[in-house]
Design brief:
heterodimer; A: alpha+beta; 3-stranded antiparallel sheet; two-stranded antiparallel sheet; 6 helices; 5 strands; B: alpha+beta; Cytochrome-c3 Hydrogenase, chain B; 3 domains; 4-stranded antiparallel sheet; 19 helices; 11 strands; globular
Chain lengths: ~200, ~450
Amino acid sequence: MTEPRDRTPDASPPPQQQPPPRPRGVLGDLLAPVAGFGVTFRTMFKKVVTEEYPEEKLPTAPRYHGRHVLNRHPDGLEKCIGCELCAWACPADAIYVEGADNTEEERFSPGERYGAIYQINYLRCIFCGLCIEACPTRALTMTNEYELADDSREDLIYTKEQLLSPLLAGMEAPPHPMRLGDSDQDYYLGGASGPTAGDGA
Amino acid sequence: MSDAGTTYTSTYSPDDPYGSTSTDESGRVFTVGGGDWDEIVNAVDPMESERIVVNMGPQHPSTHGVLRMVLELEGETVARSRVVIGYLHTGIEKNMEFRNWTQAVTFITRCDYLAPFSNELTYCLGVERLLDIEDQIPERVKVIRVLLAELQRISSHLVWLATGGMEIGAITMMLFGFREREQILAILEMITGLRMNHAYFRPGGVAQDLPPGAVDRIREFIPYMYEKVEEYESLLSANPIWLRRLKGVGFLDTRGCLQLGVTGPLLRASGLAWDLRKEMPYSGYENYDFDVVTEPDGDCFARYLVRINEIRQSLRIIEQAVDRLRPGPIMVADKKIAWPAQLALGADGLGNSLDHIRRIMGQSMEALIHHFKLVTEGFRVPAGQVYVPIESPRGELAAHIVSDGGTRPYRVHLRDPSFVNLQAVPALTEGGMISDVVASVASIDPVMGGVDR
C-alpha cells in the first residue's frame, strides 16, 4: 500500500465537499425543531405504499426465483434427461434425481435417459437458482410462484408429478415415441418453438 | 470477625478452611469496632454498594437481533457492560469448505444479510486474485458491482436509520426508512431475481446481465432518494429529542477506534477520513468522484450525520456508475473458469437460454464438457491465500481465503466489521446511562448474521 494523502483528523480542511445545506432563513431556523411535523403532515396526503398482500397479490419481478417447474418438449416428452446436474449444483442438497434408461417401448424423453425420480425439497431449497443455471436442457426453470408455505414436511418435498408442467394443446402424455424427429438432436437443434420454448434470448 | 484495626495475614490452610481471612481490600472495607450490629448494617445504603446485573437480550427489540449484553448497573449508570455473541452461529464459513468455489457464493452472501453484495464482492475479488484473472474482469462487471454495492449501501444505511430511529422512539423514521428500502429491494429483485441473499456476483463476473429497464429505474430512483434524504434530515437533524438522545452519547475518539480496530462510519464519525474505497480502491472505485464523509465529534449524532451523508455520496457514485455502463461481456472469457450459464426468461420462467442449449447439446461437445465439469467439479484455484478488504456499509470487510489448489476453499474466514466494532460496546457504554446503551449499540449498526457467521 502506498502512503496516500494526509488523513489525520487535524489536517486542514476536511476533504469532504458536502453540498451546502439549503438556506432556511430566520423563520426556517426557528421552525427547524418542528419541521419534522411538516414532513409527517404532508405524508398523510400521499399515496399509501402498504400492500394489501393476501387480498391483493402483486406480481414479482419477472426474474424472481420462485417455485421450480419441469418442462416438456412441444410433443409432450419431458425435457429432463436425468443428468443430475441440478443436484450437483445445488449448494443446499435440496434436489434428488434418479435417472433411468428410455426404451423403445417406454420413452419419456428424447435421447437415452430420463429422470425417473425427481424431488425438490423446499425445506432445504434456498432459491439461489444454481440448479436452473446448471440445467443443460432448460428442463428446470423457476417460475414467479412464491406461496410455498405448508404445514407438513412431507408436503414440502415436491415430487416429479407436482413439478412437471401441465400438458398443453398438442402435447401427449409420455411415454410415447419421439414425434419431432428421429433423434434427440432434432429436439435440441430445432429449438425455439412450442409453448414452453421460451424466448431463447 | 476480626478486632478493629487488626488484619490477619494467614493464608488458606487445608487443615482449617474457616480459619483464614482475606487481605483483599478492593471494594469498600468496613472496620467494625464493636457496638450494635444492626446499627452498623442500617448505616450502609444497600443500593449504593449493590450492583444489579441485567441481561439485555438476546431477545430484546433494541439489540439488533440476537445480541446479548450483560450490564452491571449502579442505579441507572452502567458500571460494566459485556457483549455475548454466538446466538446466530450458522456455520457458513465451515460449510463453504464443502462446496465448490462458485457454490460458496450462495453461502457467503448470507453472512451480513443487510449488505450481501459486499460479502459476495470481497469473496469474488479474493478468488479472482488467487486465480490471477483480476485484469481480465470485464469493465461492465466492475461497474455493475459498484452500482449494486452502492445501492445496497444505501439500503443498509436506511435499515440502520429505520431501526436506530425506532429504538430511540422515532417510529416515523422506521416507516420512512423501510419505505425507501423497499424501492431498492425492488430494483435488486428486478436485476438479480431476489430481494436479499442474491448470489449474483460470481468469481469471474456476475450471474446475468442487467434486465431491460433496470438502468432507467435506477435513474428514476436517484432524484427520489435525494429528496427523501432531505426529508429525513428535516425530520431528525434539528429534532430536540433526537439531538438530546444522540449528542454526546457513546463517545469514541479516533485513537479509541484505532486501538479497538473499529472501522467504517464509527471511525469516520471520529474525524478520520479512512475509507477503503479511497485508500485501497477495488473494482474501479478510483474512477469515481466522491467524498469521504467525516464528522469531528465522535458521538452517536456524528455517526448519524456520517451515514446520512454517505447515502448522498453513494447516490453520486450510482449516478456516475450508470453513466459508465457500456455493453460488454459479464463474465471472463476463460471457459475453464466462467460459470457456464446464460439465463433467459420465457413463458416457462427463468432458465438457460435455448441458444445456449442448442450450442452445448447440439453443436459443441467441448462446451458441453466444460458445462458438466464446471457444474459438477468446479474450477481449481491455485494454492495460496488472499485478503482483499472492501468498504462495506459497516466498515472494513474482507474474506481471508486460503486455497490448497483444489476445487473447494480450504478455509474462508470473514473479517466482519460488525464483529470487530462490537468490541467498542464497553468503551461506548460504560459510565453512561442505561438508556444510552440502546443508542450506542444502535450507532454501531451490528448485523448478527455477520458477527456469528
